[in-house]
């Protein structure tokens, strides 16, 4: 019996079978999921690991479930107080439902990017420049909530949104610098005035104590002499009793009064 015609046919059949098995067997990584379509209709989601499909009746679409980081390009934004800005951000999102990400939207990544850019311009255009610079965390949370609401029907979860950089015009930068400098000067003057007020209060208390205890003035005077003498200088100090100075002052005052009341000699009046 001649088997020569059967051998090529068997080889072709084996090749076709191997090709069919190769297309039926698929290996998915831990972070991948496969959406299986059977005759155009969604069957179910499979993975990870080894999955078996009936090729060519079944078709699969692989979806990565890892977090995707997308850097939003710089967007031209006009704030509520009419300041032109360039703002860029970063968006973190991941697929939570692979079936929805394939069926509900044509390209989920492109859709998320467009939603992020639109929401960034819309939200930042409703706030003033000071709020944009000072309340960054609140704006990030608001952006995340808005974008997540848009992408939830697509099986996408936005995990984080961060406004990364705000570029101001040169004129606005100079104005902000001048404002900050004026604010620092105002604070310095207020602190200096408060210090003078506290110092005057303490001096008033010290004057009241010295007024009650005259000997304290003498002790303070002697302490000052000791401090001057401890330094190596050529200053010569002649201490005088304070009582003597007070007596001389009283004598000078009395003499001035008598001189004003006594007419000079030779005056006919």
How widely separated are the two ends?
177 Å
Counting DSSP E segments of at least 2 residues, the number of strands comes to: 8
- The CATH class of the domain at 68-168 is Alpha Beta
Largest sheet: 3 strands, antiparallel
Strand order of the largest sheet: 3-2-5
Low-confidence stretches: none
Predict the CATH topology of the domain at 68-168: Tetrahydropterin Synthase, Chain A
SSE series: HEEEEEEEHHHHEHHH
How does the helix and strand content classify structurally?
alpha+beta
Helical percent range? 40-55%
Number of DSSP helices? 8
Strand content: 15-25%
CATH architecture of the domain at 68-168: 2-Layer Sandwich
- Averaging pLDDT over every residue, what do you get? 81
Q: CATH homologous superfamily name of the domain at 68-168?
A: Band 7 domain
Q: How big is the Rg? A: 46 Å
Structural account:
This protein has 269 residues and is of the alpha+beta class. Among the domains are: 11-64; 68-168, Band 7 domain (Tetrahydropterin Synthase, Chain A), CATH 3.30.479. The chain is 53% helix and 23% strand. The chain is built from 8 helices and 8 strands, in the order H-E-E-E-E-E-E-E-H-H-H-H-E-H-H-H. It has helices at 6-24, 98-103, 108-124, 129-134, 136-151, 170-212, 215-230, 242-261, and strands at 25-28, 32-38, 41-46, 49-52, 58-64, 68-78, 84-95, 156-167. Strands 3-2-5 form a 3-stranded antiparallel beta sheet. A hairpin with a 5-residue loop joins strand 6 and strand 7 (84-95). Helix 3 packs antiparallel against helix 5. The chain is elongated, with a radius of gyration of 46 Å. The protein starts with 5 loop residues before the first helix and ends in an 8-residue tail after the last helix.
